[in-house]
Amino acid sequence: MDKKLERSNADKVLRRFAKHIQAFGFVRTKPAYFVREAGPVIEFIHIHKYSFGPCFRMHLCIRVLNEPMDFIALAGPTERELLEDVRFEFGADIAAVESCANVMGDFVFNYAEPWFQKWTDREALLEEDSPLYDDQKMALQLALAGESNCMNVELSKLLLKIA
To answer: Which helix H or strand E contains 27, and what residues bound it?
Structure first.
């Protein structure tokens, strides 16, 4: 498949994928980001299109709204950490595009959503096995104590294009 068709089909997969996960409250805010605000955090899925072929990597992430980092840290697992043999590959025809979007949507339903649900107990995000980095945990602790910095919150929303 030539690169132009590959890029076009990759975007088709992501548009279809966005529809699959809309029911979970995720909104596509940037070409490769699907986000939902959940109290003091933003839960998001980052999709990386590999350059070597027609396939994707999915990264499940949590960002504390109150964190001061001026970049988006990918704090959380990739699809392979939750299900070793999953593949998000697509081909040249529309059936392959649909199939890839369906596999990605099913993965969110069966693996990503349960992973995000595990962390709805915000106190659990402060524990040692949390996907958050230490500075993110500190930002969450402050937020849970009612001490969020409005500039940090706005920065987080700006980075992930949340209105």
So the answer is: strand 27-30
